[in-house]
Amino acid sequence: MDKDGPLKDIVKKVIASLEEREKEELDVSKIWEKAAGKKASKHTKPAFLKSKRLVVNVSDSSWLYKLTLEKDRLIQGFNKNLKGGKKIKELQFRIGEI
User: Fold this and answer.
1) Which residue has the higher pLDDT, 5 or 93?
2) What is the mean pLDDT of residues 25-48?
3) Which domain holds residue 76?
4) Among residues 32, 73, 77, 79, which is most buried (max CB within 10 A)?
5) What pLDDT is attached to residue 10?
6) Rg (alpha carbons) of the chain, rounded to whole number
7) Binning pLDDT at 50, 70 and 90, where does residue 83 land?
8) CA-CA distance, 16 to 18, in Å (whole number)?
């Protein structure tokens, strides 16, 4: 019996999961850039997407305010470019690392 078999399978699954997560994060960044536009994208970075809520870091309070005013348009633009049935319902901005 191969002792390394189960461990090898676990490692493969973990690596595949990490690769899939990295691809999803890259897709979210691209979709956000399309929705927000190039100018806003230079001052923002999606932090995470969970339970239909996208949290986006912004560079400063002026961008936080400006994007908060455009929240409905940004949600629609993001959902338009999002593949599959996963649509966001909430968009949250916070000052953070870009």
Assistant:
1) 93
2) 92
3) 4-95
4) 32
5) 87
6) 17
7) confident
8) 5
Task: Give the number of domains in the chain.
Answer: 1
Q: Which residue in this structure is represented by tokens 């927000």?
A: 36
DSSP state letter for 22: H
CA distances from 87 to 1, 8, 67 (A): 46, 35, 19
Token pair belonging to 55: 């949290």
Domain CATH number, residue 33: 3.30.300.180
Cβ atoms of 56 and 45 closer than 8 Å? yes
pTM: 0.76
The total of other beta-carbon atoms located within 10 Å of residue 79's CB is: 15
What's the whole-number mean pLDDT along residues 41-55? 95
